Amino acid sequence: MDKKIKIFNNTDELSEFLGNFWKQKIDELEENKYYSIALSGGNTPIKIFTYLSENFKYKIEWSKVKFFWGDERCVPPTDSDSNFKLAKDYLFDQVGIAETNIFRIKGESNPSGEAKDYSRIFEDNLHLENGNPIFDFILLGLGTDGHTASIFPHQIELFNSSDYCEVAEHPHTGQKRITITGNIINNAETVVIVAVGKNKAEKVYEILNKTELSSNYPAMLVEPKSGNLIWLLDEESAERL
Ligand code: 6PG
Q1: pTM above 0.90?
Q2: 53 and 18 in contact (C-beta within 8 Å)?
Q3: Residues facing residue 139 across a β-bridge
Q4: pLDDT(1) > 60
């Protein structure tokens, strides 16, 4: 798979690229079709969502987007750790996303029950190919340990689960997470991995150079069958390339 790697001077330029990518795809949609996007959590999306809210509020037909998540922390939607709250505060409330277009993971619910329920939401709201729910776009982050979504190195086997969603656990805090698996990630039309900042440079180098160690990193397993994998980096995270 030829990984497309784009290196930007800063997160604003990276966000401009992402905004224009979404705008083009959404403008190309047929009548009555939606563009399905799965969002990531963590800190990096804060700057991206802020930029999109300030610069793409009127450029993107947000009513044509269905929002989902690649993972969620098992906390209530009002919790500061909630990936839903992050997107709501920095994007949805700013650009005016209708509740009917938001399919959040219920972090407050029983984790294994919610993992099953959320898988059903994929089947009911995404187009299916050979029975597999297909996302148009999945946004993933990269942890300093090589994790992506909420699949951490100590549970890398979850990536190859036959289920669409699994319950995971943060290696240090023990926090329960609900995460999509490779079953969903590698069936998506486009997958973007965003990694910015010096602290990501080591894992970016190892994964993109397929070093020996990289086989331990879940992000290494991201290989969408469509061939559309794009790494969005800034100069700091790309400094070792
Ligand atoms: C989460 C994420 C996770 C995140 C990485 C990178 O819920 O934490 O979805 O996969 O993308 O941990 O996080 P930062 O952007 O904070 O470095």
Answers
A1: yes
A2: no
A3: 192
A4: no
